[in-house]
Every structure is written in C-alpha cells, then in structure tokens.
Design brief:
about 140 residues, mainly beta, 13-stranded parallel β-sheet, 13 strands, about 0% helix
C-alpha cells in the first residue's frame, strides 16, 4: 500500500511482515516481523510478536519497542532523544551515531556490550531491558 510520507500510520499484521520506508510522521506497528528504513517521524512505536524487527537509517526522536520473541536491530542516522526497548526473548542491537547517551541496560540472561560515550545527564536516553538475550549498543555501521 502506498500512502503519503507525512501521514501518521498504524500498521498491524499479527503473524506477518510489515515493511515501511520513508515516513516522516508518527509510525506505529504490531507484527510478527518488521523491516523499516528511512523513518524520521517524531515517534516510532513498535510491537514485535514472534519475529525480528530490523530498522535502518532511523532518525525518529523517540522510539519504543516491545518485543516478545525475536531479535531487534535498529541503526540510527541521528541521535534519538529516547530509545526504550523491552524484550522478553531475543537479542537487541543498536547502532547509534556519535553522541553522549544516558544508558540503562539490564539482561537476566545474556551479555551486555556498550560502546558509546555515556553520561547519565545526557539529553539522549537509551533504555534496553531483556529477559533472555544479548544487548549490544555501539556505533552505527557505515551505510
């Protein structure tokens, strides 16, 4: 389906795939799998059910992710104000541009690697909590 880039979107595909590219307004999705790119709206709200969430060239200011079973990988081109990821079972990988971030991570079972500059008073907050899975926060990979 094609819609104008500046229209707020809510997409649902319970066990299937949602693909979205180029939106400049709020974007919300609930799906099994998600493939997202070039999303620059103020807020992304993503709920993954039993699949992976992949986002590339994201420049939204605020991103929330709730994931039940599956890996999450988001690569940002601009420093977000907030990234909040809650995952039950799956790895979480963030690629962030160079900036200083207030980082809060927790994993019951899984390694945590943080390779960004940290400062608890930063305007850029990253919160990632997972029950079972690895957390990797690092510099954005080159395009």
């Amino acid at each position: 389906m094609k819609v104008p880039r500046d229209v707020a979107i809510t997409a649902e595909n319970d066990k299937g795939l949602v693909e979205a590219t180029g939106f400049t307004a709020d974007f919300s999705a609930k799906a099994g799998d998600m493939r997202l790119s070039d999303l620059s709206g103020p807020h992304l709200d993503l709920e993954g059910r039993d699949g992976s969430i992949e986002g590339d060239r994201i420049s939204a200011r605020s991103v929330t992710v709730a994931s039940r079973n599956g890996d999450n990988e988001l690569n940002f081109v601009s420093a977000p104000d907030l990234v909040d990821v809650r995952s039950q079972d799956g790895d979480v990988r963030l690629g962030l541009p160079e900036a200083t971030y207030a980082v809060d991570t927790a994993a019951k079972k899984g390694d945590i690697t943080v390779d960004v500059m940290k400062n608890d008073t930063s305007d850029h907050a990253v919160r990632i909590h997972t029950r079972n899975g690895e957390i990797v926060i690092g510099k954005r990979e080159a395009p």
